Amino acid sequence: MIHGRARLAARGKNVPDNPRLPPVAARRTAAETSPRVTNGPAGLPALDFALPPDLEAAAPPEARGLPRDGVRLLVSRGAGTAPQLTHTCFGALPAFLEPGDVLAINTSGTLNAAPPARRADGAALELHLSTRLPAGLWSVEVRRPQAGSTVPFYTPSAGETLQLPAGASVTLHAPQASPHGGRVRLWLATLNLPGPLAPYLAAHGFPIRYNYVPRAWPGEYYQTVYATEPGSAEMPSAGRAFTPELITRLVARGVQVAPLLLHTGVASLQDHEPPYEEYYRVPAATAQLVNAARAAGQRVVAVGTTTVRALETTAEARGLAHPGEGWTDLIISPDRLLRVVNGLLTGFHEPNATHLAMLAAVAGLDRLRAAYAAALRERYLWHEFGDLHLILP
Fold this sequence. Notes:
By secondary structure, this protein is an alpha+beta fold.
C-alpha cells in the first residue's frame, strides 16, 4: 500500500484534471498547512495537516509524461526538527544507497479486486475483495457507486447474497470486527466462483480506485515490475517507481535486493480502525541477507510499510530476522521500536493515517513533521501514483 494504505475517508473529493495546477488551497499559509502531531487511528501518534486536493496524484506518472522512475524523491536524514532534506528524482536512488545495503521488497502482485455486484432488488454495488482468509473465507468490503467512484455501503445484512458477473456470487456472513460507530465496513464472506480466482478477476474485475483517481486505468498500471504472486487487494505502491534498469543499477552498485511477500488488504480504513491481519511470507534467504547486513553494519531499507510489517513480525527483540509465514496484525509505532529495519522507502500518507505512526518509529516525530512540511511546501504528490520519501538513519 499502495500505498498510503490507511486512508481515513470515503473519497468524496473532486480532483482537477491537471494535478500540478495551484488552486486556492495551495496558497494557504504555513500555519494552516504545517503538520501537527496528534493521535491518529487507534490512538497512535500521527500527523494532522491540510492536504490540498491538487496534491493527490490523479493519474499514473506515465500519463503525465514521466517514466515510472521519473517521480520525485524526498530523502530525509538526521534527527530533530532540522533534518537534512534532499529533493531529487527517484532515478537517483542508487546514489543514496551503499554497497552491502539490503533493499527488502514486497513481491505481491495486485489483483483486479473490484468486481461489480448486484443486490436481489437490482441495486448496483461494487465488491472489494480485501483478504483471503483460512477455511475458504474472505474479508470483503461492499461499496456503492457515487460520482464516478464508490463510497462504503453500510446496510447489507448478514446472510445476504450478492450476485457477481458470470453466475458468481458472494454471501456475507458476519462483520469482521465490531461495528465502528454502528456501521459495518468489512464482512466475512464466501465466494462462489465458476472457476479459479485469478482468471475470474482478470476477466470480470478491475483495480480498486478511489475518488482522487477520476478515471479507470488498466491493471498493469497497478503492478510493480517485480511482482511474482498475485494476492494484494491494492498495489504495494512504494515499489511502483522501480524499473528493471534501475534495479540493475542498484545490483551493479552492490545493493542486495531481498524479496518477501505480504498480500495487502483494502486501504479505506476509517478513523480509529486499526489494520487487519494480512498474509505474509519471509523466505530464509531474505532473513539471512538481513541478518548479514546488520552484522556488517549495513542498512536494511524496506520498500513500503507492508515490507516493514512482514520483516518485523519475524524479528526477535535482539535484532535477528527469521523466516516465517502466517498472518500479521502487527502495528509499528514509537512505542514498539523497530528490530531489523532502519530505513524506509514509502509514499506520502494522508493526515492521521495509521502508517504515519510507523514512519515516526523510523524517523522520529520531529523529523517526520519537518519532512512533511517540506513535502507540502514543495508540492510533492500523494497516493499510489505520487512521489516517494526515503527515510535513512
